[in-house]
């Protein structure tokens, strides 16, 4: 089931109040203390926790009522409240990677997650200690000893990529392409030096008339290419040159 989104735009303040469309009856503590940020800070002070700074993430006038950002020194924790029931979404981010996410009705658990993450808890221990938190597949890939191989294994086995298995397996079968980090999105396979180093990345995409192969920052795409084998060969030439 998809999470309920909060309405937190400043433009709603005059019409709906600082909590937007949220059922404030679910959050008497937040109403009393003036929003999520203040409520979290109150728990931090009461428990004398060392979790990092707690602020509004986007800087809007009403953001602190429904959203909060905790700077842990090991990435950030983003928290937000749900609309029609008492629930807090908790998401851990490190730079451009979503590490883990979950939902809890207990505001103190938001801070417990933040404290544990700040202290260096491992991914497995995070899920074991906080069963409502789920570590993302990408986070596990990047934490593995060999992220390139781990990502190939993920793309070749995860059911969500079943429809593109032929493309992924064909690319994996090429020794040159297999040494690059693969990323699959919108049926396009991108191959780069690493997850964060995308300079010169090569993309292989299926189309109605065959396959196209392109390189970021390069010349015009190659294609349409009549076969997948030919597309793999062209991609290997671009990456091996």
What do you see in this structure?
The protein is 37% helix and 24% strand. The N and C termini lie far apart (47 Å). The longest helix is centred in the C-terminal third of the chain and has 13 residues, at 228-240. Strands 1-2-3-4-5-6 form a six-stranded antiparallel sheet. The chain has a five-stranded antiparallel sheet with strand order 7-8-9-10-11. Residues 1-15 have low confidence and may be disordered. The protein has eleven helices and eleven strands.
Offer a concise description of the structure:
This protein has helices at 13-16, 28-33, 36-47, 63-66, 107-118, 123-129, 137-143, 147-157, 165-172, 175-178, 228-240; strands spanning 53-55, 67-71, 76-81, 88-94, 97-104, 133-135, 181-185, 188-192, 202-207, 210-215, 222-225.
